């Protein structure tokens, strides 16, 4: 598994937690930041997936 995939999954998880915390606390800025981190993690995970396919 490519290191980008692992980092992307971690970033997605961190973003999901941040988004949920923002919703619970009513903090729209934190919720938006969490959504952004989650999206960035998905992109990074996809890049890692492409790198894995190229290596095969």
Automatic annotation (TrEMBL):
<comment type="similarity">
    <text>Belongs to the UPF0337 (CsbD) family.</text>
</comment>
<dbReference type="Pfam" id="PF05532">
    <property type="entry name" value="CsbD"/>
</dbReference>
<dbReference type="InterPro" id="IPR008462">
    <property type="entry name" value="CsbD"/>
</dbReference>
<dbReference type="InterPro" id="IPR036629">
    <property type="entry name" value="YjbJ_sf"/>
</dbReference>
<protein>
    <submittedName>
        <fullName>Uncharacterized protein</fullName>
    </submittedName>
</protein>
